[in-house]
Design a protein that fits this description.
The chain is built from 9 helices and 36 strands. By secondary structure, it is α/β, with parallel strands linked by helices. Bound molecules: alpha-L-arabinofuranose.
């Protein structure tokens, strides 16, 4: 009789600080499973323990290698929605620092007694691409409100800069620069002087004496002069230390901690724009940051229930920075380009087929920018930006969430050229906004006929859909295009409801679904939760993977699900059978969802098990196909993600309501008994017996 499952406290916490799960050792000695205790200190109820022979079984065959798991299987979807870029990932704290928003004074307030709006001119700008600048006169003062405030910490330093000039030749004008707390207290001061009649860059360091998420920046002219100011910038000195400059360290760390296989950018609907002139154009997002033309963000007024009139794209985070970010966090770059179609939920404007060349040229140029050597036109631009080494782009998206015959025509035109010139680049095509509607049913056969590489499916649906579709890909055609589950998230209320929350129930529904993605890794080659980031005071869409304010960030339960799958990706699918775990009732859902992979580098078998129910389920886990004898002892580990109830969610103030706990797992022989906690995702790592 083989069987010892010991769970001992003791593994050191993972990076990011996982809490310990205290488990009382359970020993299954011989013959019969002892009716006994398996106590988990996380208030997990232990279900009724049956005699060993009656226990449900999770059977894995470690000797029967299945499909390979794509290294890009679990990735990140980034879109500048919910203030994800400006006011989010990018650390710039000044909103509208170049005065180019539609309302040029937006974000700025005059401190004049007159109460008049700040004065903006555009007669003799520094750059024609951003013609407007601020005019401060006669001891005037202005305040910038930041992105729903500015986050500052006591003792930390902030790099301030602007371009300035004075119109009164020879006059020395001085400008007081202050960080001001929400309560009006001055937290830091600097003084800029010696403005000349030429536009000149001035800078200073502001060291804050206080911590505040809602600080502001005040600029006050000390004398009765006139100065012109532009490109006003305030960035923490402590940012992400990688080469992707000026990014918020805490947010990038969360992305890196997921060990993502890829990063999709820049969206999302933002790729499409509401009209074609408002589409995302990558060439406008590279080069000197001050000279990137501003564009309205399409989420600015998309939802009447969540208007964001101050939402614009400065492109401070542009394509070059996205590529650098991918390198920093070890993710493959996955850019998505406009295919000559504006958002079909908005204007649906089309570039005529005979005028598609510039769009296709953008794709060709992007490939050269990413992969060309320094002798090529676009490769040399990348090299001049400081990155001589190619980025190694392998996958490219043609259009975001498009549908209909007009999309098929445009995708085909792109594919014809790109496949001829770059046969090694895999193209992503769209299956529309929903996973089973008429649009979807129209697109799939057409894309199959076109021999598309990878089809991007999207799904925002209630948790039930995800549980019910865990076997969706079991019956997919093995000879057609591969699948990219490119956007998905369980919605606790309904799609685009502002009431949606990142509940444990949603996270477990996604986890159950992901066991189906993993089991079908021969068909599903990539996937990503969407959207990624959301500012708690400035979001348009919910739920999201990571929430943040101006100082803090919180990983949701959904994030931890993604992280557990990604960090336990393995490389080969193993067959897994559940016995005695189907409730048996008509159409009722299974009691557990599970999948298994093998990881070559560690020689471990990884088993992921989702128990969405309210009771613990004790099951016998059998790993066949290894050279284990009854006396073979091995130490593995198990990580359990759970929370108090299905509505549990992580917030900035309570970030660990749903949090993974890691524990050592000792086993002898090739099977063991384990009690899967209620409402949990468990990830077991078992070394192969030798
Ligand atoms: O993730 C939010 C939006 O949902 C994306 O921009 C779009 O592709 C989808 O409709």
């Amino acid at each position: 009789m083989r069987c010892v499952t010991g769970l001992k406290p003791g593994l050191p916490a993972e990076p990011g600080g996982r809490r310990e799960l205290h488990v009382i050792m359970t020993t299954c000695l011989s013959i019969k499973w002892r009716r006994g205790l398996l106590a988990l200190s996380l208030a997990m109820t232990v279900g009724a323990i049956a005699a060993e022979g009656e226990l449900p079984r999770i059977k894995v065959d470690a000797a029967k290698a299945g499909a390979s798991v794509n290294p890009m299987m679990w990735g990140l979807f980034f879109e500048d929605i919910n203030f994800g870029a400006d006011g989010g990932l990018h650390a710039q704290m000044i909103k509208n620092g170049a005065f180019e928003f539609a309302n040029p004074a937006m974000g700025w307030r005059s401190m004049d007694a007159s109460g008049q709006a700040p004065v903006i001119h555009s007669n003799t700008p520094i750059y024609s691409v951003s013609p407007r600048y601020l005019v401060l006169r006669k001891a005037g003062a202005v305040v910038n409100e930041g992105f729903r405030g500015m986050g500052v910490r006591a003792g930390e330093s902030y790099q301030f800069s602007l371009y300035g000039r004075t119109v009164e030749s020879g006059a020395s004008s001085a400008l007081r620069v202050e960080l001001v707390g929400d309560n009006g207290a001055v937290l830091a001061t600097a003084r800029l002087a010696n403005f000349s009649s030429q536009w000149t860059k001035h800078s200073a360091v502001l060291k804050s004496t206080g911590t505040d998420t809602k600080a502001r920046l005040r600029l006050a002219l000390e004398e009765e002069r006139e100065v012109h100011l532009d490109h006003i910038s305030l960035i923490p000195q402590r940012t992400w230390t990688g080469q992707a400059n000026m990014l918020r360290a805490d947010l990038v760390q969360l992305l890196a901690d997921m060990k993502p296989g890829f990063l999709r950018f820049p969206g999302g609907c933002i790729v499409e724009g509401r009209t074609l002139p408002l589409r995302y154009q990558w060439k406008n997002t590279i080069g000197p940051v001050d000279q990137r033309p501003l564009l309205i963000n399409r989420w600015n007024d998309e939802f009447k229930h969540r208007p964001a009139p101050d939402y614009f794209q400065t492109f401070s985070l542009g394509f070059f920075e996205y590529f650098l970010l991918c390198e920093d966090i070890g993710a493959e770059p996955l850019p998505i380009l406009n295919c000559g179609m504006a958002c079909q939920f908005n204007s649906g404007e089309l570039a005529p087929l005979d005028q598609l060349d510039p769009y296709i040229q953008d794709a060709l140029d992007l490939i050269e920018f990413a992969n060309g050597d320094a002798s090529t036109a676009w490769g040399s631009k990348r090299a001049a930006m400081g990155h001589a080494k190619p980025f190694g782009l392998e996958v490219l998206g043609i259009g975001n969430e498009q549908w209909g015959p007009r999309y098929i025509e445009r995708y085909a035109a792109f594919a014809r050229v790109l496949k001829a010139r770059h046969p090694g680049i895999k193209l992503i095509s769209s299956a529309g906004p929903a996973p089973a509607d008429d649009k979807f049913r129209f697109l799939w056969p057409k894309l199959r006929d076109l021999k598309a590489d990878i089809v991007d499916e999207h799904c925002y649906a209630n948790p039930g859909w995800f549980f019910d579709n865990a076997s969706r890909y079991d019956s997919y055609d093995r000879n057609g295009p591969k699948v990219f589950m490119g956007e998905y998230a369980a919605q606790s209320v309904k799609v685009v409801s502002p009431e949606n929350r990142n509940t444990l129930e949603c996270a477990l529904a996604e986890a159950a679904y992901m066991t189906g993605l993993e089991r079908n890794a021969d068909v599903v080659v990539m996937s990503a939760y969407a959207p990624l980031l959301a500012h708690v005071d400035a979001w348009q869409w919910t739920p999201n993977l990571i929430w943040f304010d101006n100082l803090r960030s919180v990983a949701t339960a959904n994030y931890y699900v993604q992280q557990l799958f990604s960090r336990n990706r393995g490389d080969t699918v193993l067959p897994l059978v559940l016995e005695g775990l189907n409730s048996g009732a008509n159409g009722a859902r299974p009691l557990l969802y599970a999948s298994s992979v093998r990881e070559a580098k560690t020689g471990e078998v990884i088993i992921k098990v989702v128990n969405p129910g309210a009771e613990a389920i004790t099951a016998r886990v059998e790993i066949a196909g290894q050279a284990a004898t009854e006396t073979t002892t091995r130490a593995g580990e198990i990580t359990v993600l759970t929370g108090q109830d299905l509505q549990a969610e992580n917030t900035l103030d309570n970030p660990r309501a749903v949090f993974p706990a890691r524990q050592r797992l000792e086993m002898r022989g090739d099977s063991f008994t384990f009690s899967f906690a209620p409402r949990s995702l468990s990830v077991l790592r078992a070394p192969m017996g030798r």
